[in-house]
Amino acid sequence: MNVVPPPDVDAPAATREPPELCRACGSSRRLAFCAGLSRDEIRQLSSLRSGLNLPAGTPVFREGDPAEWVYSVSTGALKLYKLLSDGRRQIVCFLFPGDLFGLGSDDGYAYTAETLVPTQICRFSQRKLETFRGATPRLERRIFAMTLHDLLAAQEQMLLLGRKTAREKVASFVLDLSRRATLRGLPENPVTLPMSRADIADYLGLTIETVSRIFSHLKRAKLIELPDSSRVILLDLPQLEMLAEGLPS
Amino acid sequence: MNVVPPPDVDAPAATREPPELCRACGSSRRLAFCAGLSRDEIRQLSSLRSGLNLPAGTPVFREGDPAEWVYSVSTGALKLYKLLSDGRRQIVCFLFPGDLFGLGSDDGYAYTAETLVPTQICRFSQRKLETFRGATPRLERRIFAMTLHDLLAAQEQMLLLGRKTAREKVASFVLDLSRRATLRGLPENPVTLPMSRADIADYLGLTIETVSRIFSHLKRAKLIELPDSSRVILLDLPQLEMLAEGLPS
DNA sequence: CGTATAGTTGATTAGTATCAACGCTAGTGG
DNA sequence: CCACTAGCGTTGATACTAATCAACTATACG
Question: Measured between CB atoms, does B7 come within 8 Å of chain A?
Answer without folding.
Answer: no
